[in-house]
Known about the structure:
Oligomer: single chain
Number of helices: 11
Structural class: mainly alpha
Strand order of the largest sheet: 3-2-4
Shape: elongated
Amino acid sequence: MSHSKRNTSRAVFTSHERDLAKKAWGANSARLTRESFLDFSACRLCLETARDPVSCTHGDIFCRECALSNILAQKKEIKRLAKVREAEAREAEEQKDRQDAEDRERAIREFEMTQNGLDVRLNLEWRGTPLGKAEEEEEIVALVKEADGSSSTPTSEAQRPGKRKFELDEQELLRIAQEDRTKARKAIEDEKSAKAVLPSFWTPSITPSSNTKDTLHNVTKKTKTVPMCPASAEDDQHPYSLHSLVTLDFSEEMDDRTKKPVRSCPACKKALTNASKPVLAKPCGHVLCRNCVEQFVKPSKHNNHHHHDPHGSEDAAGAAPLLLCYVCDADLTDRDDDDMMAKHNGNDKKDRSKKKDKSDKDKIRPGLVDLRCEGTGFSAGGANQVKKSGVAFQC
Length: 395
């Protein structure tokens, strides 16, 4: 039985070796403790407290130096991969040209031999191979069928069709030339496959390869044209650039025990941790805890419903609620660029704003973003379990 042949059931193994075998094979899971989580405001690249901290548009915190180094490295890798793709495409084109030239030479040589009254397939090498024998048998069968058909269906003079007028059709000529090249390519491949292969696979001339450029192994991958955030998941990646980084402006308070500055919320003066779920205000960069954002920044539905500005315009009455930063009173309301231009500069400047679409793509849009933070060590405080999938067992 199969279970008696596994590593975990052999009598020669000790208990420690059985535990190692169980860890190496099968699916394993482990619960992360508090020591396995990064502290808040830690860089996602160097894993240390972020110096001159910046954040991407999805709330991942980095050191400015680490982010710039990663962006430059990714851009260099993108350029290198682009050159590799160009070289591979050029090499594939050259290989195709060589094959076309070889097929053309083979077709011309066979045509010249046929015109001289020689049959290409009558040489002893071809006739001695299994492919040559099989093709000779197919020709004999085809000749017998043609002779039987001609003898069984005699044609009279009245039934014979008349002579057709000769017309030079360019498409027909191209089709015939393509058929000749296809036949020549098939003959070349048959000759190569019919040759004796040496069993010395270690020689450089016949060393087996992985066939990475073959059609069977050509797995198309999504080409990366812009730098991707290194802290994003593999199944949900998002791009980031130098222009889209938001500089974080933390408020610091002196800790009474350690006598060191601690990054804290400017409203409640409490230290920012993974449990406080900090929120970033764009584009000013101030960071507040979740409770203070809900209490001071986001307008409540009760206040909006009962307190209406009688001096406001009709358009402003139905617009989105105004969000202001708690520290600097910066406007955090996410509006369309065309609406903002029309509101401040008039409708006659809409065409001018449309010409700046490319520059506005890298512009930081205002709003509130939840900063990415890891768990707290408690059961409901973030992802606290990792899994590893492997082979079920070893025989």
